């Protein structure tokens, strides 16, 4: 598998993680629909870091 393909897969996984955690309250897996919890923030940050890693791998 080429690094570009691997980077694209990692980026897509990061986007999915970010979207799931960002929309956790709307999806129904969040704790309180009126506020963003610390777990959501951590999940969004992890998702963003995975996206950056995927972009780095694909450009390398």
The N- and C-terminal alpha carbons lie at a distance of 14 Å
Number of domains: 1
Give the % helix: over 70%
Question: What order do the SSEs take from the amino end to the carboxyl end, as H and E?
Answer: HHH
What percent strand? under 5%
The largest pleated sheet is described as:
none
Characterize the overall form: elongated
Secondary-structure-based class equals mainly alpha
Radius of gyration: 13 Å
Description:
This protein has 60 residues and is mainly α. The protein has one domain. It is 77% helix and 0% strand.
Produce a short descriptive summary.
The chain has helices at 3-22, 24-27, 38-59.
Layout: helices, strands, pairs:
Blueprint: H1 3-22, H2 24-27, H3 38-59
Helix pairs in contact: 1-3
Descriptors for this entry?
single chain, 60 residues, mainly alpha
